[in-house]
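seq:
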Amino acid sequence: MVPITTRFTSEAPLHPKASELLATVFERGWADPSKIHEPSREAGRLLQEAKETFAGAFGVRTDEIYFLGEPSLGFHLGINGLLTPQSRLFYSATDRAPVHAIVDHRKNMNLGVLQDSAESSQSADVLVHQSVNPETGIVKVIPNDFGGKVFVDNTAFGVHSHLPTNWATAIWQSRSWHGPSGLGVFAVRSQTEWRNPLPHNDSKKVPQAFSIPLALASAVALENFSKDSAEVSAQVVHFRKMVIDFLLHEIGNVTIAQDEGNNIAYLLSASLAGVDSERLVNELSERGVAVDSGSACMSANMAPSHVLAAMGLPTTGNIRLTLHPQIMEDEIDYLLNNLKELVIRQRS
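struct:
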């Protein structure tokens, strides 16, 4: 069996530092922090330390942070919790699938929905701001001049992004910094007019069905991922340029999804003319290289990318690469050499 390198896929193994401590955090973080015995008090202290880690990394207060056992729930809480009957919802065609689900629901209810333009915004309006597009790596302009409330989608490499000055709610996803799956970090800004949109009969702002050990492991992963990224940032930028130059000059007939000077180095999406994406992905996998293709929301079924379609870019022959901090140059060389051979074979 050929060993598979997953350093080019959006998903990556749990950060080694978090893996080392996983047994320990499950041993120490099992108790309910709301109770008064010592194991509960210790779990509460550990959870507070984790919140301090996230607060420091994201630039928010610890009392503004909540953990979610289902990260995608953060879109519903963050957006619908801000909307009122007078609100209009501003969004982009390149937003993630959960946003479009909310938009479709509002359209069916004949409620205000506007795409892209938010020039005439009012205080009751809500804007969805995606800091980094998870498919193309394009960094969105921070909407500091929006007159309403801003929900921030930081689920893709959000640890590298700053919140806009007018943010109201935000969601991060643990997997984006190589933390454990099944954990989202949700934030509601202090003094923001927000209500829990879920049916509830208690004072809890969000559901409390999350794993404390996973939250602790995620905090460890975040600390070390941030350190790794800072140390190799120049190297990742170099690798990105290396890949783009190879695609354009050694393979050719390639369209890169990017916004010059406004991209995060870790993500790269390219469409290769005359190539079957699914076949290419499978052939690379047979040679030990795992890459993504299709929509970042539905890559498992190779669905055409709504993001690329909205940008007017080719949706066929697409591959998506994630350059993780641990990437090595020989892995880049191996990917590119095999990619060139397989593309030439398909085109011929």
